[in-house]
Design brief:
The complex is a heterodimer of chains A (107) and B (119). Chain A has no helices and 9 strands. By secondary structure, chain A is mainly beta. Chain A has a 5-stranded mixed sheet with strand order 1-9-8-3-4, with no helix packed on it. In chain A, a hairpin with a 5-residue loop joins strand 6 and strand 7. In chain B, 0% of the residues lie in helices and 54% in strands. Chain B is globular. The N and C termini of chain B lie far apart (37 Å). Classes of the chains: A mainly beta (107), B mainly beta (119). At the A-B interface, strand 3 and strand 4 of A face strand 4, strand 5, strand 9 and strand 10 of B.
Chain lengths: 107, 119
């Protein structure tokens, strides 16, 4: 079973920051938080991951709470191409997907 | 990043035939590969974990005789849908695990998927 809870959908205006929340209250000490996204009819694309520290790369930032029970993915300047389903996953070995958040970026 | 390919990208077959889908890690060795299926507007469902040189581990409810998995080398895993029926029509996605050197986590890379349509 998926170990994460995400809102089913969100809208974001183009050019604004998109903040996607995720709850993972049962995360264990050796599990990382991963974010992937899936654009229609494609394989999932890796975005970012972290263990307990905040992380940033060229695509996004990941903010993990101190107790590690939740995290937020931040897309700093959303574009129309960021419209996708975003999956938050806690992972050690195999990856189990939840239902994800469908992000719609609006012009 | 590492690349995973799948072949074919799209296949249409008649009911009762078998279909083989290949998953390859192109620039890294993958001791573990995973197979998922995805129905329209649904999330990915893990079907099985494929380990090189050993039998696959299937998730509960997945018929191992229906979905044959072979992981013959560190860069290739195959999924064969035997005696396919229309209800097997789905989007099949593989992923490959690469142990990141010097870390405790496993980076996972996904293929582009294979769209199977059974008539």
């Amino acid at each position: 079973d998926a170990k994460t809870t995400q809102p089913p959908s969100m809208d974001c205006a183009e050019g604004r920051a998109a903040n996607l929340p995720c709850n993972h209250s049962t995360i264990s000490g050796n599990e990382y938080v991963y974010w992937y996204r899936q654009i229609h009819s494609q394989g999932p694309q890796y975005i970012i991951h972290g263990l307990k520290n905040n992380e940033t790369n060229e695509m996004a930032s990941l903010i993990i709470t101190e107790d590690r029970k939740s995290s937020t993915l931040i897309l700093p300047h959303a574009t129309l191409r960021d419209t996708a389903v975003y999956y938050c996953i806690v992972q050690y070995q195999k990856v189990t997907f939840g239902t994800g958040t469908k992000l719609q970026v609006i012009p | 990043g590492a690349v995973v390919s799948q072949h074919p990208s799209r296949v249409i077959c008649k009911s009762g035939t078998s279909v083989k889908i290949e998953c390859r890690s192109l620039d890294f060795q993958a001791t573990t590969m995973f197979w998922y299926r995805q129905f329209p507007k649904k999330s990915l469902m893990l079907m099985a974990t494929s380990n090189e040189g050993s039998k696959a581990t299937y998730e509960q409810g997945v018929e191992k005789d229906k979905f044959l998995i072979n992981h013959a080398s560190l860069t290739l895993s195959t999924l064969t849908v035997t005696s396919a029926h229309p209800e097997d029509s789905s989007f099949y996605i593989c992923s490959a695990n690469e142990q990141a050197f010097g870390t405790k986590y496993n980076e996972q890379f996904f293929g582009p998927g294979t769209r199977l349509t059974v008539l």
